[in-house]
Amino acid sequence: PSKLVDASSLNKISEIDTHIGTVMSGLTTDARILVETARVEATNHQFTYGEPMRIEACTLAVSDSCLRFGERKGATISRPFGVSLLIAGVDDLGPQLWLTDPSGTYVRYEAKAIGRGMEAQ
Question: pTM of the entire structure?
Answer without folding.
Answer: 0.85
